[in-house]
Amino acid sequence: MRKAIIAGNWKMNKTPSETGAFVESLKPLVKDAKCDVVVCVPAVCIAEAVKASEGSNIKVGAQNVHFAASGAYTGEVSAAMLKDAGVEYVIVGHSERRQYFGETDETVNLRARAAFEGGLTPIICVGETKEQREKGYTETLLKYQTITALTGFSAEEVAKLVIAYEPVWAIGTGLTASDEQANEGVKIIRDAIRASFGDNAADSVRIQYGGSMNPSNVKGLMAQSEIDGGLIGGASLKAEDFSKVVNYGE
Questions:
Q1: DSSP letters along 77-124, please?
Q2: Radius of gyration over alpha carbons of the chain, in Å?
Q3: Strands (DSSP E) found in the chain
Q4: Under 8 Å between Cβ of 192 and 148
Q5: What percent of the chain clears pLDDT 70, i.e. is strictly above it?
Q6: What kind and span of H or E run contains 24?
Q7: How distant is the alpha carbon of residue 130 from its chain centre?
Q8: Whole-angstrom distance, CA of residue 216 vs CA of residue 244
Q9: CATH architecture entry for 5-246
Q10: Over the stretch 118-147, which tens digit does the pLDDT of each residue have?
Q11: Which end of the chain, C or N, has fewer beta carbons within 10 A?
């Protein structure tokens, strides 16, 4: 059985001092969680998040990583820097990075490799836009994005990764994916991995749903056969809401 993983993506929210206070308030609310709990915070908040989470079951993640080990890349952060700061997970290829900052399927692959080789667990995001879905490209696109992102990984390595299916059309648009649509998207990704990397990789890799999971819909989504957790946006910014998602089975 795959262990569920609930990760909060704070995006560009919270100061370092707010981060410390948030994690302190979250700790008692999720201390008995049956799933892995991760908070993916802005780079300037990592130190406070790591300090506040010490001795708890909360892991700290970053929201991006550069694909080079070091060099003249002003404003970027390497895997080694994140690892040394106490980070364990890093989001790679989020739809906002693709939309606003020129991320491509190829750079997602480079970042994922750099993260993994640097001792971090990448949370690799894939997903289709509303236009792509309406044109019937969902399956083709998800397969392509997934396999491109995993280029150069072995089957044994893929088994250790986390992938997030984020239907871009259901993020901040007022539209929502049904439980079945979310499960279908995750299954397409898992089937693509099965075809390219074999049964063990497909059965072991954890695939989250990243399309606005919140306290009101988490039970239905987590009851689906293929969904192994969530990459949580807005609901991760309030400790009470995030803890309800984390403790979805209670």
A1: --HHHHHHHT--EEEES-HHHHHHS---HHHHHHHHHHHHHTT-EEEE
A2: 17
A3: 5-9, 36-40, 58-62, 89-92, 121-126, 162-165, 206-209, 229-232
A4: no
A5: 99
A6: helix 16-30
A7: 20
A8: 9
A9: Alpha-Beta Barrel (3.20)
A10: 999 999 999 998 899 999 999 999 999 999
A11: N
